[in-house]
Amino acid sequence: MNTFSSPSLKNDAAHHHQHGLAGDLQTLIKTAPDRRSVLRWLALGSAAPLGLMACGGGDSAGSTSTAGSTTSTATGTCAVIPAETGGPYPGDGTNSNGSGIANALTLSGIVRSDIRSSIVGSSAVAGGVPLTVTLKLVNASASCASLAGYAVYLWHCTREGGYSMYSSGITAENYLRGVQVSNANGEVTFTTIVPGCYSGRWPHIHFEVFSSVAAATTLPAGDAVRTSQLALPKAMCDTVYATSGYSASVSNLANISLASDNVFGNDSAAQQMATVSGSVATGYAASLTVGV
Question: Which domains does the chain have, with CATH numbers?
Answer without folding.
Answer: 9-291 (2.60.130.10)
